[in-house]
Sequence to fold (290 residues):
Amino acid sequence: MTAVCWRRVTRGLGILVGTALCLQAVVGTAFAQGGSGGPNQGAISFKGGVDVPSVYVFRGIVREQDPQFTMQPWGELGFALRSGGNGAMRDVKVSVGVWNSLQTGSSGSNGFSQRLHYEEDFYSVLSLGLAGRFTLAAAFTAYTSPNVMFDTVKEASVRLSHESWLRPYGLAAFDIGKDGFDLGRRKGTYVEVGVAPSHALGRLTLAVPARLGVSGKDYYEHPITGVDHRFGFAEVGGIATWPLNAAGGRFGSWDLHGGARVLALGDTTKFLNDGKGTKVVMTAGLGVRY
Fold:
Protein backbone atom coordinates (compact mmCIF):
# COMPACT_ATOMS: atom_id res chain seq x y z
CA MET A 1 0.00 0.00 0.00
CA THR A 2 1.54 3.29 -1.10
CA ALA A 3 1.62 6.35 1.12
CA VAL A 4 -0.63 8.17 -1.37
CA CYS A 5 -3.34 5.46 -1.19
CA TRP A 6 -3.10 5.37 2.59
CA ARG A 7 -3.60 9.13 2.79
CA ARG A 8 -6.69 8.86 0.57
CA VAL A 9 -8.25 6.17 2.75
CA THR A 10 -7.43 7.88 6.05
CA ARG A 11 -8.86 11.13 4.71
CA GLY A 12 -12.10 9.33 3.79
CA LEU A 13 -12.15 7.50 7.14
CA GLY A 14 -11.73 10.84 8.92
CA ILE A 15 -14.77 12.21 7.09
CA LEU A 16 -16.84 9.14 8.01
CA VAL A 17 -15.75 9.12 11.65
CA GLY A 18 -16.56 12.83 11.93
CA THR A 19 -19.98 12.21 10.39
CA ALA A 20 -20.61 9.32 12.77
CA LEU A 21 -19.66 11.40 15.80
CA CYS A 22 -21.98 14.21 14.68
CA LEU A 23 -24.83 11.73 14.23
CA GLN A 24 -24.27 10.31 17.69
CA ALA A 25 -24.12 13.78 19.22
CA VAL A 26 -27.37 14.86 17.54
CA VAL A 27 -29.50 11.75 17.90
CA GLY A 28 -27.57 9.61 20.40
CA THR A 29 -30.42 9.59 22.90
CA ALA A 30 -32.99 8.65 20.26
CA PHE A 31 -30.73 5.84 18.98
CA ALA A 32 -30.87 4.13 22.35
CA GLN A 33 -34.67 4.03 22.35
CA GLY A 34 -36.92 1.52 20.64
CA GLY A 35 -38.47 -1.82 21.55
CA SER A 36 -36.68 -5.14 21.46
CA GLY A 37 -38.31 -5.97 18.15
CA GLY A 38 -37.29 -2.67 16.58
CA PRO A 39 -39.52 0.21 15.47
CA ASN A 40 -39.97 -1.01 11.91
CA GLN A 41 -42.63 -3.71 12.09
CA GLY A 42 -43.93 -3.14 8.56
CA ALA A 43 -43.26 -4.78 5.22
CA ILE A 44 -41.02 -1.98 3.88
CA SER A 45 -37.36 -1.76 4.87
CA PHE A 46 -34.43 0.46 3.93
CA LYS A 47 -30.68 0.03 3.89
CA GLY A 48 -27.96 2.25 2.53
CA GLY A 49 -24.67 3.92 3.22
CA VAL A 50 -21.54 5.41 1.77
CA ASP A 51 -18.17 3.72 1.17
CA VAL A 52 -14.76 5.26 0.50
CA PRO A 53 -12.40 2.85 -1.30
CA SER A 54 -8.79 3.58 -2.19
CA VAL A 55 -9.63 2.63 -5.79
CA TYR A 56 -12.77 1.38 -7.57
CA VAL A 57 -12.39 -2.23 -8.72
CA PHE A 58 -15.36 -4.11 -10.22
CA ARG A 59 -15.04 -7.89 -10.55
CA GLY A 60 -11.29 -7.57 -10.81
CA ILE A 61 -11.51 -4.79 -13.41
CA VAL A 62 -9.73 -1.63 -12.22
CA ARG A 63 -12.01 1.26 -13.16
CA GLU A 64 -9.60 4.14 -12.53
CA GLN A 65 -5.87 4.13 -13.29
CA ASP A 66 -5.06 7.28 -11.30
CA PRO A 67 -7.49 7.42 -8.35
CA GLN A 68 -7.67 10.32 -5.95
CA PHE A 69 -10.80 10.48 -3.77
CA THR A 70 -13.70 8.07 -4.39
CA MET A 71 -17.05 8.07 -2.58
CA GLN A 72 -19.78 5.51 -3.27
CA PRO A 73 -23.23 6.28 -1.79
CA TRP A 74 -26.09 3.81 -2.24
CA GLY A 75 -29.60 3.08 -1.04
CA GLU A 76 -32.11 0.23 -1.32
CA LEU A 77 -35.81 -0.22 -0.53
CA GLY A 78 -37.12 -3.69 0.31
CA PHE A 79 -40.72 -4.92 0.16
CA ALA A 80 -41.54 -8.13 2.06
CA LEU A 81 -44.38 -9.76 0.12
CA ARG A 82 -44.27 -12.91 2.25
CA SER A 83 -42.48 -13.50 5.53
CA GLY A 84 -42.12 -16.45 7.89
CA GLY A 85 -44.03 -18.92 5.73
CA ASN A 86 -43.77 -22.70 5.88
CA GLY A 87 -43.01 -25.23 3.20
CA ALA A 88 -40.76 -24.91 0.17
CA MET A 89 -40.98 -21.09 0.05
CA ARG A 90 -40.47 -19.21 3.35
CA ASP A 91 -40.08 -15.61 2.21
CA VAL A 92 -40.65 -13.46 -0.87
CA LYS A 93 -39.02 -10.05 -1.13
CA VAL A 94 -38.65 -7.43 -3.86
CA SER A 95 -35.90 -4.82 -3.66
CA VAL A 96 -35.06 -1.76 -5.75
CA GLY A 97 -31.93 0.31 -5.34
CA VAL A 98 -29.41 2.76 -6.72
CA TRP A 99 -25.61 2.74 -6.35
CA ASN A 100 -23.20 5.56 -7.29
CA SER A 101 -19.50 6.20 -7.64
CA LEU A 102 -18.24 9.79 -7.33
CA GLN A 103 -14.57 10.12 -8.30
CA THR A 104 -12.06 12.96 -8.44
CA GLY A 105 -9.37 10.93 -10.24
CA SER A 106 -8.69 10.15 -13.89
CA SER A 107 -12.16 8.59 -14.45
CA GLY A 108 -13.91 11.52 -12.78
CA SER A 109 -13.44 15.24 -12.29
CA ASN A 110 -9.68 15.09 -12.95
CA GLY A 111 -10.17 13.21 -16.24
CA PHE A 112 -11.08 14.43 -19.70
CA SER A 113 -14.80 14.51 -18.79
CA GLN A 114 -14.09 16.84 -15.82
CA ARG A 115 -17.26 15.48 -14.19
CA LEU A 116 -17.40 13.85 -10.76
CA HIS A 117 -20.26 11.38 -11.30
CA TYR A 118 -18.58 8.35 -12.86
CA GLU A 119 -21.20 5.66 -12.34
CA GLU A 120 -24.86 5.30 -11.38
CA ASP A 121 -26.44 1.85 -11.25
CA PHE A 122 -30.12 0.99 -10.97
CA TYR A 123 -31.18 -2.50 -9.91
CA SER A 124 -34.16 -4.60 -8.91
CA VAL A 125 -34.08 -7.97 -7.14
CA LEU A 126 -36.63 -10.73 -6.51
CA SER A 127 -35.52 -12.89 -3.57
CA LEU A 128 -37.09 -16.21 -2.56
CA GLY A 129 -36.35 -17.71 0.84
CA LEU A 130 -36.44 -21.48 0.32
CA ALA A 131 -36.49 -24.51 2.58
CA GLY A 132 -33.17 -25.61 4.00
CA ARG A 133 -32.08 -21.97 4.60
CA PHE A 134 -31.38 -21.36 0.90
CA THR A 135 -32.10 -18.05 -0.85
CA LEU A 136 -32.56 -17.72 -4.59
CA ALA A 137 -32.40 -14.20 -6.06
CA ALA A 138 -32.92 -12.96 -9.61
CA ALA A 139 -31.79 -9.42 -10.46
CA PHE A 140 -31.69 -6.89 -13.27
CA THR A 141 -29.06 -4.13 -13.23
CA ALA A 142 -28.43 -1.17 -15.51
CA TYR A 143 -24.89 0.22 -15.11
CA THR A 144 -24.79 3.80 -16.39
CA SER A 145 -22.11 6.50 -16.56
CA PRO A 146 -23.36 10.08 -16.09
CA ASN A 147 -19.95 11.46 -17.15
CA VAL A 148 -20.02 9.19 -20.26
CA MET A 149 -16.85 7.26 -19.39
CA PHE A 150 -18.49 4.01 -20.56
CA ASP A 151 -21.62 2.93 -22.41
CA THR A 152 -24.62 1.63 -20.46
CA VAL A 153 -24.35 -2.05 -19.55
CA LYS A 154 -27.49 -4.11 -18.89
CA GLU A 155 -27.26 -7.34 -16.96
CA ALA A 156 -29.49 -10.13 -15.64
CA SER A 157 -28.20 -12.33 -12.84
CA VAL A 158 -29.13 -15.27 -10.62
CA ARG A 159 -27.67 -15.86 -7.15
CA LEU A 160 -28.04 -18.88 -4.84
CA SER A 161 -26.85 -18.58 -1.23
CA HIS A 162 -27.07 -20.56 2.00
CA GLU A 163 -27.60 -19.15 5.51
CA SER A 164 -24.86 -21.05 7.35
CA TRP A 165 -21.76 -19.87 9.23
CA LEU A 166 -19.72 -20.06 6.02
CA ARG A 167 -22.39 -18.15 4.00
CA PRO A 168 -21.50 -19.73 0.64
CA TYR A 169 -23.00 -18.45 -2.59
CA GLY A 170 -22.85 -18.78 -6.35
CA LEU A 171 -23.66 -16.11 -8.95
CA ALA A 172 -24.19 -16.18 -12.70
CA ALA A 173 -24.58 -12.86 -14.57
CA PHE A 174 -25.43 -12.35 -18.25
CA ASP A 175 -24.87 -9.31 -20.45
CA ILE A 176 -28.19 -8.56 -22.14
CA GLY A 177 -27.25 -5.26 -23.79
CA LYS A 178 -24.81 -4.65 -26.62
CA ASP A 179 -21.93 -3.66 -24.33
CA GLY A 180 -20.10 -5.36 -21.48
CA PHE A 181 -17.75 -4.24 -18.72
CA ASP A 182 -14.76 -6.12 -20.13
CA LEU A 183 -14.59 -3.87 -23.26
CA GLY A 184 -14.84 -7.01 -25.40
CA ARG A 185 -16.65 -7.41 -28.68
CA ARG A 186 -19.15 -10.08 -27.60
CA LYS A 187 -21.79 -10.37 -24.88
CA GLY A 188 -20.39 -12.14 -21.86
CA THR A 189 -21.39 -14.43 -19.03
CA TYR A 190 -19.81 -13.96 -15.60
CA VAL A 191 -19.63 -16.64 -12.90
CA GLU A 192 -18.67 -16.08 -9.25
CA VAL A 193 -18.47 -18.31 -6.18
CA GLY A 194 -17.58 -17.16 -2.70
CA VAL A 195 -17.95 -17.34 1.06
CA ALA A 196 -18.37 -14.65 3.71
CA PRO A 197 -17.94 -16.11 7.22
CA SER A 198 -18.09 -13.70 10.15
CA HIS A 199 -17.49 -13.80 13.88
CA ALA A 200 -18.63 -11.49 16.68
CA LEU A 201 -16.07 -10.24 19.21
CA GLY A 202 -18.22 -8.36 21.67
CA ARG A 203 -19.86 -5.54 19.70
CA LEU A 204 -17.28 -5.80 16.91
CA THR A 205 -17.97 -8.16 13.99
CA LEU A 206 -15.12 -9.50 11.87
CA ALA A 207 -15.80 -10.94 8.39
CA VAL A 208 -13.39 -12.72 6.06
CA PRO A 209 -14.99 -12.75 2.60
CA ALA A 210 -13.36 -14.61 -0.28
CA ARG A 211 -14.49 -15.02 -3.87
CA LEU A 212 -13.45 -16.26 -7.30
CA GLY A 213 -14.60 -14.61 -10.53
CA VAL A 214 -14.34 -16.38 -13.89
CA SER A 215 -15.63 -15.99 -17.42
CA GLY A 216 -18.47 -18.35 -18.22
CA LYS A 217 -18.21 -17.16 -21.81
CA ASP A 218 -16.68 -14.05 -23.42
CA TYR A 219 -16.62 -12.02 -20.20
CA TYR A 220 -12.90 -11.43 -19.73
CA GLU A 221 -12.03 -10.77 -23.36
CA HIS A 222 -8.66 -9.11 -23.84
CA PRO A 223 -9.23 -5.58 -25.27
CA ILE A 224 -6.44 -6.03 -27.85
CA THR A 225 -6.29 -9.73 -28.75
CA GLY A 226 -9.97 -10.47 -28.19
CA VAL A 227 -9.05 -13.73 -26.43
CA ASP A 228 -11.42 -14.69 -23.63
CA HIS A 229 -9.32 -15.58 -20.57
CA ARG A 230 -11.25 -17.82 -18.20
CA PHE A 231 -9.69 -16.66 -14.93
CA GLY A 232 -10.71 -13.14 -13.94
CA PHE A 233 -9.62 -12.75 -10.33
CA ALA A 234 -9.40 -14.30 -6.88
CA GLU A 235 -9.97 -12.15 -3.82
CA VAL A 236 -9.72 -12.42 -0.04
CA GLY A 237 -10.34 -9.67 2.48
CA GLY A 238 -11.10 -8.70 6.03
CA ILE A 239 -13.87 -6.35 7.20
CA ALA A 240 -14.52 -5.04 10.71
CA THR A 241 -17.96 -3.60 11.56
CA TRP A 242 -18.67 -1.51 14.65
CA PRO A 243 -22.30 -0.64 15.54
CA LEU A 244 -22.92 3.01 16.38
CA ASN A 245 -26.17 2.34 18.23
CA ALA A 246 -28.30 -0.46 19.62
CA ALA A 247 -30.10 -2.55 17.02
CA GLY A 248 -33.67 -1.45 16.45
CA GLY A 249 -33.23 2.23 17.29
CA ARG A 250 -35.80 4.79 16.18
CA PHE A 251 -33.48 5.99 13.41
CA GLY A 252 -32.41 2.52 12.30
CA SER A 253 -29.23 0.56 13.00
CA TRP A 254 -26.04 2.45 12.05
CA ASP A 255 -22.52 1.08 11.73
CA LEU A 256 -18.99 2.10 10.86
CA HIS A 257 -17.01 -0.46 8.87
CA GLY A 258 -13.63 -0.76 7.21
CA GLY A 259 -11.10 -3.23 5.94
CA ALA A 260 -8.92 -4.37 3.08
CA ARG A 261 -9.02 -6.89 0.27
CA VAL A 262 -6.29 -8.36 -1.92
CA LEU A 263 -6.92 -9.42 -5.51
CA ALA A 264 -4.92 -11.77 -7.72
CA LEU A 265 -5.67 -10.89 -11.35
CA GLY A 266 -5.92 -12.90 -14.55
CA ASP A 267 -4.47 -11.98 -17.94
CA THR A 268 -7.25 -9.57 -18.99
CA THR A 269 -7.71 -7.92 -15.60
CA LYS A 270 -3.92 -7.72 -15.21
CA PHE A 271 -3.71 -5.84 -18.53
CA LEU A 272 -6.37 -3.39 -17.29
CA ASN A 273 -4.25 -2.86 -14.16
CA ASP A 274 -1.19 -1.59 -16.08
CA GLY A 275 0.26 -5.09 -16.22
CA LYS A 276 0.27 -5.61 -12.44
CA GLY A 277 -0.94 -9.00 -11.25
CA THR A 278 -2.20 -7.95 -7.81
CA LYS A 279 -4.29 -5.14 -6.39
CA VAL A 280 -4.89 -4.03 -2.80
CA VAL A 281 -8.07 -2.08 -2.01
CA MET A 282 -8.66 -0.34 1.32
CA THR A 283 -12.22 0.64 2.25
CA ALA A 284 -14.00 2.61 4.99
CA GLY A 285 -17.75 3.12 5.17
CA LEU A 286 -20.87 4.17 7.06
CA GLY A 287 -24.03 2.06 6.86
CA VAL A 288 -27.65 2.12 8.03
CA ARG A 289 -30.52 -0.38 8.11
CA TYR A 290 -34.15 0.29 9.04
